[in-house]
Amino acid sequence: MDLTYTPEQQAFRAEVRAWLEAHVPSEPLEHFDATREGFEAHREWEKTLKSGDWGMVTWPKEYGGRGLDLIQWLIFEEEYYRAGAPGRVNQNGIFLLGPTLMEFGTHEQKARFLPKMASGEEIWAQAWSEPMAGSDLAGVRSTAVLDGDEYVLNGHKIWSSRAVFADWAFGLFRAPGSERHHGMSLIFFPLDAPGVTVNAIKKINGHVGFAEIFLEDVRVPAFNRLGDEGQGWHICMATAGFERGLMLRSPARYQVAAAKLAGLWQEYKDAVDPALEADVVRAHMNAEAYALNIYQTASRLMAGAKIGPEASTNKIFWSELDIHLTQTALSILGTKAELMHDAPDAYHATDWIDDYIFALAGPIYAGSNEIQRNIIAERMLGLPRK
Amino acid sequence: MDFTLNDEQRMFAETAQTLFADTCTPDHWRKQMETGDARDDARWQAIVETGFTLLLLPEEAGGLGLTELDFALIAERAGYVALPEPLAESAGVAAPMLAVLAPDHEALADPSTTIAIQHPSAPYVADADLAGAILLYKDGEAYVATPDQVALTRESSIDPFRRLFRIDWDPANVTSLGKADWDLAFDRAALFCAAQGLGLAQRAVDMAVAYAQERQQFGKAISTYQAVKHHLASAQVAIEFARPVVMAAAADVARQDVQSRARVSHAKLVALEAADKAARASIQVHGAMGYSWEVDVHLFLKRALALTQAWGTPAFHRSRIATRIFTQPIGPDQTFARENENA
Ligand SMILES: Cc1cc2nc3c(=O)[nH]c(=O)nc-3n(C[C@H](O)[C@H](O)[C@H](O)COP(=O)(O)OP(=O)(O)OC[C@H]3O[C@@H](n4cnc5c(N)ncnc54)[C@H](O)[C@@H]3O)c2cc1C
Asked: How many CB pairs below 8 A link A and B?
C-alpha cells in the first residue's frame, strides 16, 4: 500500500490541469438535456477534448484513447471535475458501452465504433428498459430476427437517456419465442434509421432528458450485434458492472460537490442551524470514502481482479450520498432552496435545487437500490433467491 | 499509488484469522464468561508466540518493526471474534509508546506481559490489574506505574469481556517519563478501535446470514424475505465503505498531520457506525434469540458500543474532520494531500 502519487502521476495531473485550464469554456454550457443547442455545444466540447486526445484516456491509442491505466483515469477525472468542465454528453457511450465493447467486441467493431465515440462524432443512448421490463430487465419483449446478414428489429423502448438528440443506441433484443435470460442479444441501431420513432419524455425538471423509442422493422447489419447471439444478458450484466461499480459516477464529482457544500456552509453558518455542520462534515466523509473505495477497486482491477457484485454497494453508496449532500445544501439555503437559477434571489454559485432533483433519480436508474440490495444479499452474502 | 495489501500482510492477517478462529470460539467465550477469568492463558500464549505483541515494537527493542497497517489487519480479526484480551491497546498503543519513552522498562522484556494505558479519552482501563505496567497521562506528560502503585476501582462494563478499572494515582508515587507523543498514541488507539469495528461489523452480518438460512417461518427460511436481506445488505454497504477508510488511515497514521488525523477520525466514526448498524440488524434478524444472552450477537453490539465512545467520542472525531475541511484545501485532488504540501 502506497498512498502517494508517483512523479509520473503528478506530471500527468499537471498536464491534464494545464490543458483543461486552457480549454474549458469560461461560461457554463446550456444543459445537454435541455435543448438541441445545449446538446450540440456539448458535442463540440467532446470534439475539443478529442483534439487534445482526452476523449477516453483508458482506451488503447488505436481506438482513440491514450492507453492509460485506471489510476491515471481517476486523476484525469479529478482534474476534470475540479476544472468545472462540461458534463460528458456521451457518458452512456464512453463509460458504459465503451468498456463493454472493449471486452466483447471484435477488432472491426472496436475500430468502427470506439474512435467516433471518443470524439463525440457519434453520441450514444442506452435502450434497454421497456414499459414492461424495468427492474425485471429479463422481461424485455423487443425482438431481433436475423434476415440474411441483417437484423430486423421491432419493439418499444423507454426511459432512454439523451435518445432525443443522440445518434446511436445500444439495445437489448430477444429472439422471438425465447424466454427470460435466454435468447437475448445486444444490438446497435442508428436513432435516425427508417422505422425508428423517438418521442421525448420530460423529466421532473422539465428537461427532455429521456425518450421512448418505437422500432418498426428497423434493419441493421448483423455486424451491429455485440458478442454472440444469445449472449445479450451476460454482456448487459458486464455493462451494468461498469455502470454501477466504477465508471459512471466518478468520486471526483462528489468531492467537488462536497467542497462546494463546505463553501456554502462557510457563507451561511452564522445564519442557520449550527447542527447542520455535522451534515456538511458527513457529506465530505462520504465523498472521501467513495474516493478511497474506488482507488481500492482500481488498484485491485489493475492487479488482475474483475468487478463483482460489490459494484452494487457502490451504486447504493453514491446515490444515497448524493441525495444527502444536495439535501444538506437545501437545508442551509432555507427559504431560498426552492428558487430556480433565473430567480433574482437565487443562490447563484451552484444550482443546488437542480442538483438535488437530479440526485433523486440516482436510486432508480442503473438498477434501483432495492434491486442492488437484493444482489448484495444474494451474491455477496449468499442468501437464497427464493 | 497502490491500494493493495502485500503478500506478507495478507499472510499475517490469515494467520491471525486462523488463530482466533481456533482459540476464540463461542465455546471459549462461554467458558470464560462462566469462570470470570480475565484471560484465556492458552490463547494468549498462542497470540504471543505468533508475534502479535511484538509487531509494532521497533527491531532495536526486539520487535518486528512492522507498521500500523499490519497491526490494523490483526485488530480487525480480533474484532471479528470479540477478543477478550486487550491486545489492541497493549500491543498496538501502550507497548510501542513505552518502548520510545523507556526502552529498558522491564515490562517490555517479556512479550506476554500486557501494558495498560490510561488517557482522558479512555479513563476506564481494561485489565489494568494484570498489566505489567500502566501508562498514565497528565498534562501531556507520561508516567508509568505498576498496578500496586495506583488505586484501581473496578467499574463493571456492559461488555462481559471488558474488565474495566478506574485508576486514581498520585504523580509522586509513580515514575515520570516526561513529554510523550500522546497524539500518536491517541491516533493509534482510535485507529485500532476502528479496525476492530470492521471485524465486529462483519461478524454480526455473518452470524445473521447463518441464522437466517436456518430459521424457518411461514414455511420457509427467513433468509428469503426481502426485508431481512435488505437489513443485511445495508450493513454490508456500510462495511464496504468503512474498510478502505480504515486501511488508508492505517497507512497514513504515522504522518501525524491534519489530514492523517482527520482520516483516523473518519475511520473510527464509520467503522463503529458500521459495527453498530450491523449488530442491531443482526439482533433484529435473530428476533428474540438475538435478544437472549445465549446467542452471541450481543457481544458484538456491546463491544461496538464501548469502542464508539472510547478514544474520542463521535463528536470529537467529527470536529477533527471539520478542522481538516475548514483549514486545508479540499476537493478531488486533495484525497491524499499532506499538510506540509500546503504550507
Ligand atoms: C433518470 C433516469 C434515466 C434513465 N436512463 C435510462 C437509459 O438511458 N436507458 C434505459 O434503458 N433505462 C433508463 N432508465 C430506466 C431505469 O433503468 C429503470 O427506471 C429502472 O431499471 C427501474 O425500472 P422501472 O422504472 O420500470 O421501475 P420498476 O421496475 O417498475 O420498479 C418500481 C419500484 O419497485 C421496486 N421493485 C421492482 N422490483 C423489485 C424487486 N424484485 N424487489 C424489490 N423492489 C422491487 C423498484 O425498486 C422500484 O422502487 C432511466 C431511469 C431514470 C429515472
From this structure: 158
